[in-house]
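Lay summary. Proteins are chains of building blocks that fold into shapes, and those shapes determine what they do. In this project we predict the shape from the chain. Here is one chain we studied, written as its sequence of building blocks.
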Amino acid sequence: MRLLSIASQPEQLEWLMQRFQPYRVESFSSEPQGLLTGYYEPELEASRLASAGFQVPLFQLPLGLSGRSVWFSRQEIDNLPQAQTALKGREIAFLADPVDALVLQIQGSGRIRVKEPDGVVRLVRLAFAGSNGHPYKSVGRWLLEQGELKDASWPAIKAWTVQNPRRVQEMLWSNPRTVFFKEEPLDESSAAFGPRGAQGVPLTPGRSIAVDPGSIPYGTPVWLASTGPLVNLQKLVLAQDTGSAITGAVRADYFAGWGADAGDLAGRLKQGLRIWVLWPK
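And here is the predicted shape, written in a compact code that computers can read:
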């Protein structure tokens, strides 16, 4: 594989053509057109201790909660003493903005610059550890149904929260799903890649996608074709991850990377998709 990695682009193309056969992916109703969205790894400021400016906790998995259990909903976590007692001492860090915490949970992982009690700031990764077992419900869809927005992109949602601070909690509770995290060190090597996807390997910006593994197995090379107002993509990617909202054969979530620019792309990306899997001959 090392020889392949240093080969010229024509040589790499020849290697693929000799060993793989492309097959167009269609839905069960023989529809070749699907949907491409994007996701990314947020990078946020945080504090190890709660303070006046950092009061939104990010939690470890509650003790005794199995991966398949249905636990308290987001609203119950915020209000029920039983839930708050179970999470006491399970705080990893605190953010300033509850909407940022929601974004981090939706993306499934992120990087935080956490200020320690001694004042030192460390860059760490928060990786997915589990959830409360409730289904994900889009706050953007809730805002559309409420007639609050006509554009449910994340920039539009963020702008709405600034204009409607008293309804932010109501919006957050419309999504009952909560995600719990585990902290991972982020050295120079691991910082060059994204978090580990469902396949168990680090994600590569622009080359990793999340798929429905019931339709496309992890590790499958995929030719992705998508034309829209944000990006025109005609490229080879790898199926390396999944997500609760990624269902169906012609469906992919494009890993855009990390930071503000990646977040802007991922928050706005929603356009048509056609895909071909490359299957060994």
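What the prediction tells us: The chain has two domains: 2-39+197-280, 43-191.
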